[in-house]
């Protein structure tokens, strides 16, 4: 009886899949299509893969729709599906960005089944009667934009658009469409107050790539990070500058973070941080002001304030600077934020010491190194790569653990 049930279950399932040896699977080179946006290609790993599904998220107004409309203009034969804006609003943005491509199709739709049907019809070749002399253009879509996934819904499920079930099911159907038609799909995702993608966690799992837009909307700097990428690295960062005509790729981002004036100023120290695999030169600016308050101020912009307080304690204890009588301020020029990168420790300490002594570092100097609680200077990841980039840009005085081993020794050598 039990064996009959097992045979019945096996019959319903059909023929089971058989495992194959990993070495017997033929190797295939991944074909990519360039987006013609250099920084976007860098983050994607070289370009778009056929059937790739990309989720792009970020705060409202950061530039998600802008870069996707620019992408549609570069590649052509793009279907832009809008569930938030009307076609006239998209037209206004396109005119502002100077986009006049006739190959961009705009669809104002929130029903995911209607979108799938429209795409299948656009990619389907229709036969013409022999006596029909008109030339019919067949559209082979090079990509689809879904703006946004939280506005999509299907009538097969109950619940409003944006609910967990609707977002999950709509995403599944769009992924199936991308794989079956070999069309890259970009989904725009909303973010929550906590800074995560709105909707179910499975949304980030089922897509191939998750891109995250960062930046202060009051500044022109925009950073595009790959949080997940099945077809490329997740340690690359794209740098953009927001201008009147959209997002512009920045091949030399140092100009955004360094002052054009080459004259050295007390409190200003250059360092090299790592954004993905790319070293970026940034300027650390510090200000030390005497105070009569019982509790001096410790204000940091672009740096973790707890890390800043720790470094001030090292300066007081290991280098003998009486900073308990001064308000201390530190800022990263250009609006960039240093996250979990201790390579700027030495530059922050020397910047504060430079402001305290009112003396400048030698011209053309750059400081790279982690500072320990004992006041020792430690080597950081990809230090050789950072110093090579600094030398390429004309900086010759390297302040690292190879020149000085302790923070007090560095202050004595370069500031006294």
TrEMBL record:
Organism: Candidatus Woesebacteria bacterium GW2011_GWB1_39_12
SUPFAM superfamilies xref list: P-loop containing nucleoside triphosphate hydrolases, Ribosomal protein S5 domain 2-like
Biased amino acid composition, Basic and acidic residues: 1-11
Protein name listed in UniProt: DNA repair protein RadA
Entry text on domains: The middle region has homology to RecA with ATPase motifs including the RadA KNRFG motif, while the C-terminus is homologous to Lon protease.
Job description of the protein: DNA-dependent ATPase involved in processing of recombination intermediates, plays a role in repairing DNA breaks. Stimulates the branch migration of RecA-mediated strand transfer reactions, allowing the 3' invading strand to extend heteroduplex DNA faster. Binds ssDNA in the presence of ADP but not other nucleotides, has ATPase activity that is stimulated by ssDNA and various branched DNA structures, but inhibited by SSB. Does not have RecA's homology-searching function.
Family the entry assigns: Belongs to the RecA family. RadA subfamily.
Gene3D superfamilies: 3.30.230.10, P-loop containing nucleotide triphosphate hydrolases
Alphabetized InterPro entries for the sequence: AAA+_ATPase, DNA_repair_RadA, KaiC-like_dom, P-loop_NTPase, RecA_ATP-bd, Ribosomal_Su5_D2-typ_SF, Ribsml_uS5_D2-typ_fold_subgr
Chain positions of motif RadA KNRFG motif: 228-232
GO biological process: recombinational repair
Presence of keyword Nucleotide-binding: yes
